[in-house]
Design a protein that fits this description.
heterodimer; A: 142 residues; alpha/beta; Rossmann fold; 5 strands; 42% helix; B: 174 residues; alpha+beta; Chemotaxis protein chec; seven-stranded antiparallel sheet; 5 helices; 7 strands; globular
Chain lengths: 142, 174
């Protein structure tokens, strides 16, 4: 399965970094969409089929927490896989985001952390990602 | 051993430079690094239990390297993107330093990074609460944390992170 991914972050630099990391990580990608705040992100969700949302918290216009609450309140998007990618360090706020079903990746992040979190929240197994492992056979003749 | 605000700021700064820009912040500057001017600068204002500002100043010779390491060689040629990349460094340093200093329950809102290299340095009355500096590649970097508020507000912030913040020499903490 290849993912349609939406990256919502007010920093164009961070969006570029996340997209670059996604491409390097080997996560199967069908399309990548971008938005600069929660409001713009919600419009994208109405217009496009999205499998995975990578969401910042601190943003103007509409922050990530409010966007996530609206996503969970809408039956069309309530089951969307969401990964928060943020510097947010408040345990109170992180607990709220986790209670809304989001996984957390803390900035700065190594590419493998983002990849592993995406694979976990989307339910992609090692076999899906790496392909089937060849079975060993006792009958091999050396 | 108690940890000071300056040490916490250094930890957040060093890890951000390393993980985000793939550059190492060396505690001591070589002669070449010390001679490099701090002529590129951004700031991030924050609001929460106290108001404040974090500034990041680096030698402008580092700007293409920072941008290239964060965005790729192609993007690194554009000066606005170089400035945006340094802004993101400041944003991440600030986002990581504040919970270390104020405690994990404190909620802060960070403004967008602002380019301040063309503005005069802070007035004498705005002494930083903490400052870290060091050599980076062929230049140097300096990060300053300013806290604006009443002494009571700043004391409350210190109490929030009191399990790891202690009194420090004048000029380096609160």
């Amino acid at each position: 399965m290849a993912f349609n991914i939406l990256v919502v972050d007010d920093s164009a630099v961070m969006r570029t970094m996340i997209v670059r990391t996604l491409k390097m990580s080997g996560v199967p990608i069908a399309s990548i969409h971008e938005a600069a705040n929660g409001e713009e992100g919600l419009r994208r969700l109405q217009d496009e089929w999205i499998d995975l949302l990578l969401l910042d918290v601190n943003m103007p216009v509409m922050n990530g927490e409010e966007m996530l609450q609206r996503i969970r309140a809408d039956e069309r998007t309530r089951d969307l896989a969401v990964v928060i990618v943020s510097t947010e360090g408040s345990e109170t706020r992180l607990a709220t985001l986790q209670s809304l079903g989001a996984a957390i990746v803390h900035k700065p992040f190594p590419p493998e952390t983002l990849r592993d979190t995406i694979l976990r929240v989307t339910g992609v197994t090692d076999a899906d990602y790496y392909g089937p492992v060849a079975a060993t056979s006792d009958s091999l003749d050396f | 051993m108690p940890t000071t605000t300056a040490q916490l700021l250094r930890r957040a700064t060093a890890s951000t430079f390393e993980d985000l820009a793939f550059l190492f912040l060396e505690p001591e500057c070589s002669e070449e690094q010390a001679a490099a001017p701090l002529d590129a600068a951004v700031s991030v204002d924050f609001h929460g239990p106290v108001r404040g500002r974090l500034t990041v100043r680096v030698s402008s010779t580092l700007m293409p390297t920072i941008a290239a390491n964060m965005l790729g060689e192609e993007q690194a040629r554009h000066v606005p993107l170089q400035r945006d990349a340094l802004g993101e460094v400041a944003n991440v340093v600030c986002g990581n330093a504040l919970p270390l200093i104020a405690g994990a329950d404190a909620v802060f809102r960070l403004d967008a990074p602002r380019w301040i290299a063309d503005e005069p340095r802070a007035r004498d009355g705005d002494a930083p609460a903490a400052c870290v500096s060091g050599g980076v590649d062929a230049g140097r970097a300096e990060v300053e944390l300013f806290l604006f508020g009443t002494p009571e507000q700043i004391d409350a912030l210190r109490t929030s992170g009191a399990d790891h913040v202690s009194a420090a020499p004048a000029g380096s903490i609160f």
